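Example record

The entry below shows one chain as it appears in the dataset: sequence first, then structure tokens.
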Amino acid sequence: MTAEPLHFDPAQGDSRAFRDALGRFGTGVTVVTCPTATGPIGITANSFASVSLDPPLVLWSPAKNSARYPFFAAAPHFAIHVLGIDQADMCKGFARTADCFDTLDWSEGAHRVPLIEGCLSRFECTKVAEHDGGDHTIIVARVTRVSTRAGKPLLFHSGRYGTLSDPS
């Protein structure tokens, strides 16, 4: 039995209902990292998208109310790490705290950007633009280097983590 659809104006309605509706869109999961004066930081984000192949551009959108926001808003260089299903613990760790690096295999790349090893893809980036996006900032960056490997992605849908199933 299919539930009746819910219709509402998100500007007037329940913000939880709007968030739940957005959660129906399954996304990949990333960890974005950047250097700071006191060491590397990271944050879990699913607000990542490709923008352009030529030039190679991507975007991500940090929340302005995050304690880590000022560091990412100020970072001219950062890395976006696309996580595999085997990296759910890392995802949850960076969702809670900025400094989960002590349990990871990582190194410093160009511009002191922390680079986590073993991700499905890693995009080393230089910020080229930022735009106001309400309670988030949309950061557009040029990809300067890519690392990639095969594997099953870590996905997020309706508040839960999972991966793709093999087709029948």
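Notes for this example: Residues 127 and 141 are 4 Å apart (CA to CA). The helical segments are 15-22, 69-74, 88-96.
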